[in-house]
Amino acid sequence: MNFYKKTLALATLALAVGVGSAHAQSAPADPAATPETKRLLSNLYKLLDRGVMFGHQDDLAYGLTPEGQRWIAEPGRSDVKSVTGSYPAVFGWELGHVELDSARSLDAVPFAKIREYVRQVYAQGGISTISWHLDNPHDGKSAWDTTRTVSYILPGGRDHARYVSYLDRLGTFLGTLKGGRGEAIPVIFRPFHEHTGSWFWWGEKNCTVAEYQQLYQFTINYLRDTKHLHNLLIAYSPAEAENQAHYLERYPGDAYVDVVGFDAYYAGDGSAFKKQMATELPIITAVAKEHHKLPALTETGFERLPAADWWTKTLLPTIAGYRLSYALVWRNGRPDHYYAPYPGQASAADFKAFAQDKKVLLEKQIAPLKIYSKNL
Ligand code: BMA
């Protein structure tokens, strides 16, 4: 083979095994992403072949005792670990009220603790994802205040300066998430979630498509360019979507998104949950493929878990046929508001069986992979 033919053959081989596309697929949306962030995302794509990572909101911050009473901030304690022997692979944290310079989140967790937890998770080889139920910057009420707001806080708007001050506080906190060598800890940031529901001021009935997209883009650009944060993977996370066009209607663009997910809760007889899952799991699978993004079930759960077999008979069979990076259940906030079992809870044995399924990944499975420092 002469040099020309050899080069051509090698190039053809590279294309055939998908070297080029695999690389493009795993690059973060932020062109300046840190090495740890790039490595994490590339490894998350590889992990899609192994199974779905299990996640739990505020897992290390609080939970419930076998008697169903609250425990708060007990070092090392986790309801998921108490039941299965392993921490979850993914940990959700909530930054609502960081924008007010408050010492505690809207779920009463001190921000100093959240910083410690994110560091602990990173050191353990797990993954942190961050939600932000920020107060309404227009009228100072909560995230659930649906007064029309977005036009006021965009550049040129009357309350823009206040929104920027919120972003400064958020960005400053995110900038303190550092590992042992001073490196920024990569986190999956999930702003303006559940916008297809209209229960938050950024919901689809409360702002136009263009306003939502501008808010999303302005926010991410500000965190990247002004706050110099390059450790963020961004999750786009609507609630219910009727079809792919609806799912993508307010998508801010490939340059602003790394993870395509959705939030879906089981309630009542579960018929709405089943319908939503049957509609949206195929949508995120297709969108992930077309846009080269990572698919995930960004929030799910069944409040108070009254069905003892929900994990293996409902959740697992519903998601088993899909490639999903992770599925995260919400917080064990109160005796009447929890989504992961605690020892003695009705679904604890079934959750253990779910966690033992070879397609379900907990921290025990992913920690040895050293996803921030090694390429899988
Ligand atoms: C909701 C509930 C609230 C909480 C909020 C933000 O689903 O759990 O109690 O304040 O999420 O975490």
What does this structure look like?
- By secondary structure, this protein is of the alpha/beta class.
- Helix content is about 35%, strand content about 15%.
- The chain has 13 helices and eleven strands.
- It has helices at about 5-15, 20-25, 35-45, 80-85, 110-125, 150-155, 160-175, 210-225, 245-250, 270-290, 310-320, 350-355, 365, and strands at about 50-55, 60-65, 70, 90-95, 125-130, 185-190, 230-235, 260-265, 295-300, 325-330, 360.
- The strands form two sheets. It has an eight-stranded parallel beta barrel. A two-stranded antiparallel ribbon has the order 2-3.
- Strand 6 (about 185-190), helix 8 and strand 7 form a beta-alpha-beta unit.
- It is globular, with a radius of gyration of 21 Å.
- The two termini are about 35 Å apart.
- About 45% of the residues are buried.
- The model is unreliable at about 1-25 (pLDDT under 50).
- Bound molecules: beta-D-mannopyranose.
- Beta-D-mannopyranose binds near residues 330 and 331.
